[in-house]
Amino acid sequence: VKKDEGNVKRTVLKSVVGTLDLSIRYLLQGENFPGERVNPPLFGCINRRGPNRYGYIANLCVAKSARRQGIASNMLYFAVESAKSNGKINQASVNKKHENFLLI
């Protein structure tokens, strides 16, 4: 468990009840955020540092027996905090299924 915020309590379970994929990616030329296109400048350069990096979270799943206990929310929190501290990102994108309204 990493940094706790004041009076927020985070529980660590002794078994695996969920998983997710986290990757640090780079924005494409002309993107401000994944999939959001803007008019690119006439000339540009590829910059692999700073604001061109973002965290991408996908495939978040929690066992049926462990759902509705805040586990997915905690997993998202830790994934974003990890990406911020280790990946030096300022933005994160979460991929979710259209029919899964309880994810976020």
Automatic annotation (TrEMBL):
N-acetyltransferase domain segment(s): 45-89
GO molecular function, one term: acyltransferase activity, transferring groups other than amino-acyl groups
CDD domains: NAT_SF
Pfam families: Acetyltransf_1
InterPro entries linked: Acyl_CoA_acyltransferase, GNAT_dom
UniProt protein name: N-acetyltransferase domain-containing protein
Lineage, opening ranks: Eukaryota, Viridiplantae, Streptophyta, Embryophyta, Tracheophyta
